[in-house]
Specification:
alpha+beta, two-stranded antiparallel sheet
Length: 156
């Protein structure tokens, strides 16, 4: 049995890990060769290029971790689709977010147990850089999604 401190990143290859102290940078490259268009759902294999994302990951001990992701841009081949180009979606990093889902969940868990100010201070000591206003916004978004899920459940 082998034990690794590096989490599993689906469809990604770890190119290198840079840094011995905080922040640690993990360089990852996507291995995906096709992706569905987010607007029409048509699968595309036409890679137009790559771009980089730098989301924050859960800390390793007390060292902050920043991922450097190289992911693909694809071209949608559906003639009726208004979206000509789109970016590869990652299941573990939400669209337009600066943190992984695991990092967001850790922040929200702390925020539900204490105030946003206290959660922000604890997160800083753990190596997660987040503001109090971001914590409040994430709590409101989480509460809204819970309410929407409950309303959908009751409509069934």
């Amino acid at each position: 049995m082998s034990i690794s401190i590096v989490p599993d990143y689906p469809n990604m290859t770890i190119e290198m890990i840079v840094g011995e102290a905080s922040p640690i940078q993990v360089v990852l490259t996507s291995q995906v060769t096709s992706a569905p268009c987010p607007r029409c759902g048509t699968p595309s294999t036409r890679i137009r290029g790559t771009y980089q994302r730098r989301p924050q990951e859960l800390p390793w001990g007390t060292a902050a971790v920043v991922l450097q992701l190289t992911v693909h841009r694809f071209r949608c081949d559906a003639p009726a689709c208004p979206q000509k180009f789109f970016c590869e979606r990652l299941s573990w990093v939400p669209v337009y977010q600066r943190r992984t889902i695991a990092c967001i969940q850790r922040i929200l868990t702390m925020a539900w147990e204490m105030s946003a100010s206290a959660a922000q201070r604890v997160a800083e000591t753990m190596g997660i850089h987040v503001s109090r206003s971001t914590i409040n916004r994430k709590c409101q978004q989480g509460l809204y999604s819970l309410q929407m899920g409950y309303q959908r459940f009751q409509q069934r």
